Structure formats: C-alpha cells, structure tokens
From TrEMBL:
It comes from the Eukaryota. This is Ubiquitin-like 1-activating enzyme E1 B protein. It comes from Dioscorea alata (Purple yam).
Length: 649
C-alpha cells in the first residue's frame, strides 16, 4: 500500500503507455489499481483471437476492435472514476511529437519492436520525459529506466541485429532446421507467391557456373492452363531433386560435409494416388482459413510429418494457394498467422531437412522458428508490468539513486528470480544521446543516395522523416509541404552516386542527418572504401562508432556512494562482469558473465543475411545464468534496500 505522500504523487501524475498488448493490458490494470488517475494509451492494433489467452482485458466479442479503446473500457468498469485516454494510432504518427510527449511525467513502453522503441526513446530524450522500457520473451523479461542526464538512454548500448545466416548456408549447405526454414520462407515461398521482381537467390551454387538461371526461371512460371498437380510436382522435383543433383556436382563443397540426397516426387508419392488431391469441400467452409492440413485430414500440429506426409502437404498447400488465394499471389510475404503459408513452409523445410539429413519438425515447432516466436507467458508479463509501476513511482518521486534495471530470469539464480541491476550512465559515445559522430565506410563512387538512405538512415539509424545536409546544402528531405520542383530535385538525387551529388559526399566529408519529428540529429563522417566482403558486409557499407560500452567506475549511477544495491561490476578482464548483490559479490560459480551476454537478447530470428528481419521482444536481457536446485521465489523489497530479499513460504 502506498504511503499518503506517494499516493498524492501517483494521483497527480500524467502517464503515457505505449502498447496495449501482453504487457500493456497487465500494466494498465496495475496502474489503475495502484491509484494512477490520468493514463493515456497509444496502440495501433486491433484485437486478434490469438491475443485472448493472455491479454485478459479483451474478450472474443472484441476481436477486430481497437486494443487501446477496449482496454480503456475494460479498466473503467472497475475504476470508473479515473481518466484513460486511448489513441488507436501508430506512435510514429506526426501528431505524437515532442510537444505531445512533454505533457507527461513518465512514459511506459509495452512494445514489441525495436523500431517503435527507438522512436519513443528519441522523443523522450527530446521532451526530457523519463522512459520506463520493458520487454518479455517467454519466461524472460526486463524493465529498464532511462532518464536524460541520469541514466543511459535506450540506445546507449547498440542492439544486436537479428540473427541472420550467410546466403550460401541457406541456398547450398544447410546444417540446421532453421536454415531449412529460412530457405523455405525467404526463398521458395517468396519465389512462388511473392513479388516476382525481388532479388531471389534460389539458384544452387555449383561448380558448374552454367547452372542456367534461365532454365531456373522457366520452371517457376506456370502456364495458364497448366495442371496444378503437375506444376507442383515439377517445382518439387526441381527444388528438391534437380537442384540437389547440381549442388552435388561441386565436389569441393562436400569434401568435409555430409552429402545431401536428391528427392524426387515419384519416389515419395506414386503418381495420382487416390485421395492425394485433398478434399476441397473441407477447406471451403465459410470463415475457416484455407488449410492443407484440414483438406488432407491432418489434425495435430504437434505431430512430426513423415517425408511422404510433408510432400502431400507441400503439393496440397501449393494447389490451394493457386486455387483459393490466386489474388494474393505476387504480393505475399510470409506471415506466421497465415495458416496455409505456415503449412507450406513447414512442409518444404521438412523435405529439405530430410534431403540434408537434418531432423524434421512439427508445424508447431516450425511456426515458432519461422515466426521468431517464443510463446508468451502471461505471468512474466504480469511480473514485468508490476516492475514497470515500481520504477515509474521512483521516477515520479525523482528517486534516481534507487532506479533499477530488473531482469526476470527463467530459473531462479542464487535464489533470485528477479535480478536488479543499477542502471548505467549514458554512453558518452552514444550517437543518440551524445553528439559523437558516427563513421561510415562506403564506396562513394558506386553507392547511390537511395541505398545510403534505406540501409543506413532508415534501417540502421531508425529515422522516420530524414533530412540530409552537407554543410549548409540540403541534399534530401521528405515532407508533404515541399514545393514540387524541390521534391523533384531531391528525387533525382536519390539515384545519383554519393560522389556525384550537387554537394559531393566523399571521403572526409561530414554528413548531418536530422529527423524533424524525433527532433534528433547526428553526424556521420564518411570514409571511402573500394571493396566489401559480400558475406560479412552484405550492405556494401559499414557503420560504426557507437559500439563502445561505458567505462568502468563512472559508468553507472552510484547508490549514494554506498554499496547496498545490486550492481554489475566490471572486472579487470575487459568484457566480463560480475553480478553482485548487497555490495558483496554473489558467491561465484556460474555468475561471472560476459558483458556482451548481459546485453544480448535471446535471438531466434531466422532470416537470410541480406534480409535481416525486424527485431522484436527483448533487448538487453541476460540469458539463462544457470540453474539452481532450490526453486525458491525471491521477492524484492519495495524499499530501496534491494539487496534484502523475502522468501515466499
Ligand atoms: N509503432 C507502434 N505504435 C503503436 N503501438 C504499437 C507500435 N508497435 C507495436 N505496438 C503495439 O505494441 C503491442 C505489443 O504487444 P505484444 O507484444 O503483446 O504483441 P501482440 O501483437 O499483442 O501479440 P503477438 O505479437 O504475440 O501476437 C501491440 O499491441 C502492438 O499493437
Ligand atoms: Zn544514449
């Protein structure tokens, strides 16, 4: 129960929540029950059936409605006297500018993607409003506090980019099931059902450079009256049979690897097997999604299909796409919520896995890998929401010496389920909250301004509405209010190489980039470089400059000079840290952690190297630190003495 003065602070606070999903629902409820009376919520989504198992403010009848609005109505039913203002909108919309953010005492994030998190971080920095940031992945979760001038900002530590795989591992030498999944969704699925114009490296790299890509293209084109069964079998034989034969001709590749086995459909499924075509009636029921599994009578998504079963699903899913979803073909991108797409990708990945001697997986598992899904745990969201409120109250009391980043661990470690850590001070070389310039190595004679904007400014720097300047010369700007001829000249610049722009970007120049909405700008020093490694530097440009971690001693808020709080203490050994509690190092044995591990998130993203997927879920979370036989739950005191623990009986 909050003390009287604390309650007054809570009652007088105006808070902004971003995200009304898994964490957001718990958070809104906890805020309301803790006495908060003026809460604004932004969420751009509508409610989906798959949200209902954990987003407890929503019911079946709300499916399709705004999360922010339904969450508000649900909470007002038990706290009718408080003010909740919902916005069914993207936090990146221009209306949510710095002035909008300035009206709040604290901002609380319950988001699921890096892009929006970075955007909110910049607005909070510009508006000088503290941010409590959070994330969960299954049993893991964390809450961090970011206050300008007091702690590091959300972007002070570079966030690991989603794990991606070298293209040749995916196209030629898969060794794990995830490689087969990436191949099936990013290459095969994209080739058959996606945008025909996008680059797609389904070709097998063989010693025989003449592996005709012309022939390759022809195979995928379906003539208007081509029988779908025959078309499916042709694709099957091409990608699982012929391509593997070609790959095998490159002896060098297989010298130290297990050779794959080509698979042809005639060996797996005899032609025109009765019943093989599925039962179209079953899958045309109004309202139910088109599904190869239901068409073929497969019920359990946790079963691992045999090679023959995978092959049946492959052919059936392909047929259903062409017969039932023909309007989508050419525009599809893989979506984990698209049942037919998941079935197709699972089947294709399993057939490829079988060819390469890799264990096959169930649709349920494959979906998790393909969609980068770690199943959400409602309890973790509830714990994290509680911790957000605890930190928010400290922020409102300006109790910065007691701010904590708290990690929720999968297994209690040293009897701690929750690991509190003193926040770091700002990284002096953070390009977001300090003025340190970045360094970009790029071929200024061959890279176009368009590539620079897409790969660096938008993708790496997370800018929304960039403005690019060299000295006082504007090279590029976006905005609805631009005059036509100005907009046209900026557009012409997009296709020029950097060194040939009206103000040339060459080695030694410093480019200034600003995002007016985020009120954020940074400088990039340019260094010309002729060649890049295709495998390791697929963008053809390398951005660096803000990777250094904070330095020892001055890098974290001190608890009044005392050592009563948990802390991460840097060891002499440069990148190892030791987690300590109560000033005393927790007994050693499994607790020494590399700094890089502490700041890395669990990474299950599956994509090909040159298409890094979007990042979601947690950032900066410690991994499983080690099991402890005693599964005691340990709670943190609400008092500043975080080192003290209470045991739940
Ligand atoms: N740019 C954004 N603006 C506003 N809301 C956003 C933005 N990005 C994400 N969100 C919201 O953040 C919430 C995150 O919630 P959560 O992680 O539970 O995801 P979910 O979409 O509800 O569930 P799942 O992805 O697991 O199916 C979502 O409701 C989503 O709409
Ligand atoms: Zn920073």
């Amino acid at each position: 129960m909050a003390s009287e003065p604390q309650l007054e602070i809570i009652k007088g606070a105006k808070v902004l929540m971003v995200g009304a999903g898994g964490i957001g629902c718990e958070l809104l409820k906890t805020l309301a029950l803790s006495g908060f009376q003026d809460i604004h919520i932004i969420d751009m989504d509508t409610i989906e059936v798959s949200n209902l198992n954990r987003q407890f403010l929503f019911r079946q009848c709300h499916v399709g409605q705004s999360k922010a609005k339904v969450a508000r109505d649900a909470v007002l039913r038990f706290r009718p006297q408080i003010n909740i203002t919902p916005y069914h909108a993207n936090v990146k919309d221009p209306e949510f500018n710095v002035d909008f953010f300035k009206q709040f005492n604290v901002v609380l994030n319950g988001l699921d993607n890096l892009d929006a998190r970075r955007h909110v971080n910049r607005l909070c920095l510009a508006a000088e409003v503290p941010l409590v940031e959070s994330g969960t992945t299954g049993f893991l979760g964390q809450v961090t506090v970011h206050a300008k001038g007091k702690t590091e900002c959300y972007e002070c530590q570079p966030k690991p980019i989603p794990k991606s795989y070298p293209i040749c591992t995916i196209t030629s030498t898969p060794s794990k099931f995830v490689h087969c999944i990436v191949w099936a969704k990013d290459l095969l699925f994209a080739k058959l059902f996606g945008d025909k114009n996008q680059e797609n490296d389904l070709n097998v790299h063989s010693g025989d450079a003449d592996n005709s890509s012309k022939q390759m293209e022809d195979v995928f084109i379906r003539s208007l009256d081509e029988n779908l069964e025959e078309y499916g079998r042709k694709i099957y034989d091409h990608v699982f049979g012929y391509n593997i034969e070609i790959a095998l001709t490159n002896e060098e590749t297989w010298r130290n690897r297990k050779r794959p086995t080509p698979i042809y459909i005639r060996d797996v499924l005899p032609e025109n097997l009765p019943g093989q075509n599925g039962n179209l009636e079953n899958c045309t029921n109004e309202g139910s999604p088109v599904s190869a599994m239901s068409s073929l009578g497969f019920k359990n998504s946790q079963d691992v299909w045999s090679l023959a079963e995978s092959s049946k699903i492959f052919l059936e899913a392909l047929r259903l796409f062409f017969e039932k979803r023909d309007k989508d073909i050419g525009n599809l991108t893989f979506d984990k919520d698209d049942q037919l797409a998941v079935e197709f990708v699972t089947a294709a990945a399993n057939i490829r896995a079988s060819s390469f001697g890799i264990p096959m997986h169930s649709l349920f598992e494959a979906k998790g890998i393909a969609g980068n899904i770690v199943h959400a745990v409602a309890t973790t969201n509830a714990i994290i929401a509680g911790l957000i409120v605890i930190e928010a109250i400290k922020v409102l009391k300006d109790d910065c010496k007691n701010y904590r980043m708290t990690y929720c661990l999968e297994h209690p470690t040293r009897k701690m389920l929750l690991m509190p850590v003193v926040p770091f001070e700002a990284n002096k070389s953070c390009y977001v909250c300090s003025e340190t310039p970045l360094l970009l190595e790029i071929n200024t004679h061959s890279s176009k301004l368009r590539d620079f904007i897409e790969k660096i400014v938008k993708s790496k720097l997370g800018m929304n509405c960039p403005l690019i300047m060299l000295g006082s010369t504007l090279i590029y700007e976006v905005g609805d209010d631009l005059e036509e001829d100005v907009a046209a000249s900026y557009n012409r610049n997009l296709d020029k190489v950097l060194a040939e722009l009206p103000a040339p970007i060459i080695s030694g120049t410093i480019v200034t980039i600003e995002d007016l909405q985020q009120e954020f700008s940074c400088n990039i020093s340019i260094k010309h470089r002729e060649d890049f490694d295709e495998e390791n530097e697929p963008d053809g440009m390398v951005l660096s400059g803000w990777t250094s971690a904070p330095t020892e001693k001055d890098d974290r808020i001190k608890s009044n000079g005392e050592s009563s709080s948990a802390a991460i203490r840097k060891l002499d050994n440069a990148d190892e840290v030791e987690i300590t509690a109560g000033g005393e190092p927790i007994e050693s044995g499994g607790l020494k952690r590399k700094h890089s591990e502490i700041s890395e998130r669990p990474d299950k993203e599956a994509s090909v190297a040159h298409h890094p997927g979007s990042s979601s879920a947690n950032q900066g979370m410690p991994q499983d630190i080690g099991d402890n036989e005693e599964d005691d739950l340990v709670l943190l005191d609400d008092s500043p003495e975080i080192g003290k623990k209470k045991r739940l009986k």
